[in-house]
Amino acid sequence: MSQSPLDRLLGNDDPDPGCDAGLEVIDQYCEAIRRGEDAAGRFPAFAAHIHNCTACREDTEALLAALDGL
């Protein structure tokens, strides 16, 4: 999920559902990543959101780290 500083600043043009919608699928997104699936392809709106939202991107990274510790 690493991005260049410029990409983080500019975001992208994809539709962004917002934080509330992202919280509804963050667990499914992270589980898909753990299973080796194409999580961004399965959840394109959430992938666009975490590209644009630092807080949700950090929450996603933290959840992935916690799941890796299980």
3D structure, described in words:
There is one protein chain. The protein is mostly helical and 70 residues long. It has one domain (15-68). Helix content is 71%, strand content 0%. It contains five helices and no strands. Helix 2 packs across helix 4 (44-52) and helix 2 packs parallel to helix 5. The model has no long low-confidence stretch (mean pLDDT 85).
Write the SSE topology.
Elements: H1 5-10, H2 19-34, H3 39-42, H4 44-52, H5 54-68
For this structure, the quaternary state is single chain
Strand content: under 5%
Largest sheet: none
Total DSSP E strands: 0
Number of distinct helices: 5
Task: List key phrases describing it.
70 residues, mainly alpha, 5 helices
Short description:
The protein has 70 residues and is mainly alpha-helical. It has one domain.
